[in-house]
Amino acid sequence: MSGIARPRLPERGLQGLARIPPALWGVGLGLLLTPLIGVLVLTARGRWIAIGLLGMLAFPALLFLSRYTVEIIMFSSLFVPLTLSTGSQSPIVASLLLTGLFGGLWLLRLVFERERWPKAPAVIPLFGFMAVSVISFFWSEIWRDPMIPPWFLYRARLGGLGVMLLSPLALWLAAAHLRHPRQVDRLVGMFLIAGALGAIQILAGRTLFPFLNTGGLFSMWLFSFGTAFLVFRPMPAWLRLGLGLMLGIWGWYVLVPGISWISGWFPPIVATLVVLWLRSRRLFALTAVALAVIGVVYWGPLQFWVFDYNYQTSGTTRMEAWARNWQVTREHLLFGTGPAGYAAYYMTYFPDQAMATHNNYLDVLAQTGLIGMGLFLWFLAALGREIFQIWRWVRSTDHQARALVAGLVGGFTGLLVAMGLGDWFLPFPYTQTIAGYRYT
Fold it and tell me: What is the average pLDDT value for the chain, to the nearest integer?
């Protein structure tokens, strides 16, 4: 036999390495490179190299955890306060970063692994809205007013564009990954756990869990799904009592200390009434009468905080803000002023009278024009139609499915109302900042 035999690696060793989970590979390599990453973080330029290395190390873990994409994003939104500084007052929150990472991974799988494309009716207008958002970003620069400096406030505009792309991407991820009621159960369970922790904080009168996020429309979704579970789903008496007590604590919180914030209690009431209507017309009527009686008994403070106070501090200013916004929007009706674009006109022409609209519908019209607004309304109509079709399908099925879908119907209806009261669906960079993505 001539020649030199090649050394062969032991097959058992290779098989053992192949059985190591990708996430464990990432953790192991991360521990080995921790000293290098620590040194890089201490320098300004090295910080971004360190972030790149961490991203490469996190890639195997993302592959392994991608089956829990929606659950991880929801968990980070509720319980993970970590942020990444952008050098401005608008940091990147963990849920926004994870949406981008998991979304990019899912798009790669669509291309290379022929992953299933979501076929929900709302996907088409949503894709169109994302495309129009990109078009409006550049369109607003091409048709920029001569008085506006080139690429004025471009960082805020890029942040606005990112949110307007990642928010729809989050819904795509949900459509692609939520395939079993058990997954939705986990999401609702996270909300209920966060609600219980929030109720403990309310009783304590101080912040006990600084990591907890109960801002924005949290109370609306809590009441919607909590009420649905309470009236639709069989459960032990002690659990029903605990759930009712938690909702009662939150009800007191949004109606007594938070009475001046209409967005905090009106959408939850709408969502709750819709859920009760789906369960029982009699239960709906009794609750509506009870709310009316409470309103009559406490009409004095209610009139002051809801009508007089809000009209003086918010009502007139909002009307003025909408009129001011229309002065800019009417000149850019096709594709709007671009994501976060109308702020540049505000700061140039009337900096002392610039006011945000606090209205998602008007924000979408101002930023993406009539075309973007049409696609956005199409998306809402398609999504609502699909939700109500699912409700008609599950009405005669098990209690679990009915509770989940009833909560979804109530929450969606409350969301339509809430969008008229603030930018609670697509956060506006100059009010919520892009960090508002964590609770929108």
Answer: 79
Q: Are 181 and 404 in contact (CB under 8 A)?
A: yes
Q: Which residue has the tokens 């291309």?
A: 111
Tell me what pLDDT residue 4 has.
Answer: 43
Number of H helices, E strands in the chain: 18, 2
Query: Of the ranges 256-260, 313-317, 343-347, 425-429, which one carries the lowest mean pLDDT score?
Result: 313-317
| 217 Cβ contact list (under 8 Å, min separation 6) | 263, 267, 414, 415, 418, 424, 439, 440
Name the least confident of 76-80, 199-203, 377-381. Answer: 76-80
Structure tokens at 304: 């002051």
Contact 121, 385 (CB under 8 A): yes
CA distance 269 to 274: 9
426-to-173, 325, 339, 376, 393 alpha-carbon distances in Å = 17, 17, 11, 11, 30
DSSP letter (8 states) at residue 348 = H
Q: Is 354 left (phi over 0), alpha (psi -120 to 50) or beta?
A: beta
Mean pLDDT check: name the lowest of 49-63, 170-184, 316-330.
49-63
Which residue is it, tokens 């679990």?
400
Residue 270 confidence (pLDDT): 95
Please write the tens of the pLDDT for every residue from 243-266: 999 999 999 999 888 888 888 899
Domain ranges of the chain: 22-117, 127-439
The H-assigned helical ranges of 205-341 are: 218-232, 237-255, 262-279, 281-297, 299-302, 310, 316-329
Helix axes 69-79, 154-177, angle to 10 degrees: 130
Contact, 437 vs 163, CB < 8 A? Answer: yes
The two structure tokens encoding residue 332: 């850019």
| pTM (2 d.p.) | 0.82
User: What is the radius of gyration, based on Cα positions, of the chain?
Assistant: 25
Q: What DSSP character marks residue 308?
A: I
Q: What is the mean pLDDT of residues 141-169?
A: 76
Q: Which two tokens stand for residue 201?
A: 């904080």
Q: Which residues contact 359 (CB under 8 A, 6 or more apart)?
A: 318, 322, 419, 420, 421, 422, 423
- Those residues whose C-beta lies under 8 Å from the C-beta of residue 177, and which sit 6 or more positions away, are 67, 69, 70, 183
Q: Given its phi and psi angles, is residue 212 left (phi above 0), alpha (psi -120 to 50 degrees) or beta? A: beta
Beta pairing partners, 61: none
Least Cα distance to 360 among 420, 307, 277 occurs for 420
